[in-house]
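An instance follows:
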Amino acid sequence: MYALKSVTRHVLAPLAAVVFLAGAALAADTPKLALPGDITIEQAQKVVAAALSKAKEQGTLMNVAVIDAGGNLKAFARMDGAFLGSIDIAIRKAKTARLFNMSSKTLGDLAQPGQPLFGIEVTNGGLVIFGGGELIIDGSNTIIGAVGVSGSSVENDMAVAQAGAAAKF
């Protein structure tokens, strides 16, 4: 039994050291996973903070969703008391803006009866074609994500979304 422990200690200890060092070397060479032109978590949190500040100024309770350039949820906040049903609407407003590279209001204007995009709201798993979804554009004029806001009137939602989209990085 003692011999087995001794062999195990003398064989496995150096092996563990090699595995550790190899893992450390791989970690040092691992490329960054953030994509160029994509919103960072720090930027997304600034967008949320700017939007929440505007909502508080208005006296409204909002859900704020920030998606990345690929349309994936990056940051979210639901103010205490904000409508539960507005969670999905906020996320869909952000996705709508990003999928079509325009505000959800602009798309909504093009989707009215008699307009060229009438009926588009039933595509892509359901879009939201009224105001409250805005693109987030960085200093080099690159779309890095979008913000969607829901919880009050369309006008209030738009004001809060625009405040979030205008956040300074």
